[in-house]
Amino acid sequence: MRPPSSIDVKLNLHFIEISGTWKPNDAERKAAWELYVEIVTRVAAVPLNLNNGLLREALTSLHTLFQTTRTILRHYGPAVAEPRPDGQYNFGFLAVALLNFGIRPLLTQWHPALEDWEAGRPVNRSRVEHERLWEKEPILRDELTTTGKLLTSYATTLAEACGIPDLGEAIPESLYLGCFANDAGKRVTAAE
Fold first, then answer.
1. 44 C-beta neighbours (distance < 10 Å), count
2. Which pLDDT belongs to residue 144?
3. Nearest alpha-carbon partner for 143 in 175, 117, 168, 109
């Protein structure tokens, strides 16, 4: 599969929608591959099952994407952020927009809230059990699922820019729904 010379970009980043074209150069394709691998292999991009996985791990995974993205941007330099005509994007813009509008709002709200809850954990209660007892746990799980879908969409765009099949398709959509539903198909909360 040969990389396309131009791809259509359409990303809904909660507060803004990015829609236009991206004509990736070679440096952008290499940077896109590096970020793609980081995204599709993170716990934050995979549904967090009710029976396993910690909210803290998912938030930490999202947080480390900032350092990873900064490293990629520094490595490839200005070649991935060259100015483009109106309606056209570059890797640098798309990467920074994902961090600042797609991930930062979730971390800003939920990292300190979860940290406050974690600080009250009795020594005889496991971290998993303590998270499940948090009244805001189902809300954060829902928001992590929404952010995971955003990351999946973003990863699909990066895969397209690289000219590769989307390896993220190894995670079927039914998993997103099945992780949070009981046998009757209703959303399960920590209390159930």
1. 21
2. 92
3. 109
* DSSP structure class, residue 44: G
Phi-psi region of 121 (alpha: psi -120 to 50; beta: other; left: phi over 0): beta
Structure confidence by residue, pLDDT tens digits, 52-77: 679 999 999 999 999 999 999 999 99
Tell whether the model's pLDDT for residue 47 goes beyond 90. Answer: no
Q: What percent of the chain has pLDDT over 90?
A: 67
CA angle at 85 for the pair 84 and 90, rounded to the nearest 5°: 30
Residue 80 CB burial class (10 angstroms; 0-12, 13-18, ≥19): buried
List the one residue out of 64, 91, 60 whose CA is nearest residue 75. Answer: 91
The pTM of the full predicted model, rounded to 2 decimals, is 0.83
Rounded-to-integer distance, Cα 168 and Cα 151, Å: 10
What crossing angle do the helices spanning 137-162 and 104-119 adopt, rounded to 10°?
A: 140
